[in-house]
M24 family metallopeptidase (Terriglobus aquaticus), 430 residues
Amino acid sequence: MQRRRFLQSSLIATGAMVSDGLQAQRVPDHADANRALPPSIAALKNRKSEAVPISNDERARRVQRAQELLQQQKMGALLLAGGTSLVYFTGLRWGNSERMMAYVIPARGAAFIVCPFFEEARVRERLSTVPGGDTIRVYTWLENESPYKLVSKGLMDAGLRTGSLGIEEKTPFVFADGIAKACPGWHIVDGTPVSAGCRMIKSPAELALMRLANQVTFEVYEAAWKAGHPGMATSDFSALVAAAYSRVGFPGFASCETGIYSALPHGSVTPQVIRENDIVLIDDGCTVEGYYSDISRTFVYGTPTDKMQRVFEVVRKAQTAAREAAKSGNECQSVDAAARKVITDAGFGPDYKTFTHRLGHGIGMDMHEWTYLVRGNATPMQANMTFSDEPGIYLSGEFGVRLEDDMVVTPNGGEWFTPQSHSLTEPFAV
């Protein structure tokens, strides 16, 4: 899964029930299961019925678009092993092991599959989500045979004998190396321009799922914030979030850092307790039909200091400047530059001194995916690209402030999926 214990969240979320007030400073165990949830979390409603899965017709259009990009890039085919891109094009969820299972999209003609002989039945029972699944060619190999030679055979059967074969970026090296040796007529190249070229531009159906994921995360965060209080361990706050996601019906998680540890962008393993008047920083999201949200909120239970207030306002202005710069046609690096200028002009520069990371990342079926809002990335933004917008100021030994919302690029600038944070004491006010 993604960063910071996201897999752990599904285990917590399945049954964690948290006592009102969470007096015990620990993650709830099975003894808590029969206790009442805090009112703000108990009031949450299950929203699974709102999620409309991606259709087979849309996956077929994705394969067609990949073929268009293959021709533009002068590639003969694109090979996908297990991973997110395989799910994107086929709906097949398949992990990578030492045995290669691959889906190959030729620039022209029908796609095909290479899989172990003993896995053929398992592959075929899942072909209902694969474009052309009823007639797709499946090449199988025995344990003493080379799967890589079958890639060459499949391409030859499609009328392709030489050319450039794009390999999706997450494909294990051992597969790419084996194919290169078994297919001497083919030049192995990076398939990212095709795979990311498709995935970066979101369809209306994808945007609807992402919008729902973000709305759910916003709702869950607000419920947990209302239930939280000083004296609570940060692990218990994360458990509140997990319990809230369980109520709404989607797997999710939030890391929680407080005090000096909020100055570490991805947190600390040190046990922490939320104190009155200290900064609290929460981050992460959920998945809806495979599509991610990623939201950060910074707040204080009590009265923030003047310095905390000032830092928050600077970060908020930087986030707004980045959103306004996220116009189709602008370079990705210009969005990072817009936010970084606000932070530097306010005296928290230069450069990466306190704003220590890029402005944002692409988001969709992976929490971090192509392309990135970072200096040096001259990729022009296009309408319906989706990104996180997450500037931060991190003052080592004091505190950190980060505000993060996800947005979709439009000709007029970024459009957030969720309302921007209002203040340190009212982070969810609209």
About this structure: Residues 6-36+202-416 form a domain with the Creatine Amidinohydrolase fold (CATH 3.90.230.10). The chain has a mean pLDDT of 92. Residues 263 and 396 are 6 Å apart (CA to CA). The radius of gyration is 24 Å.
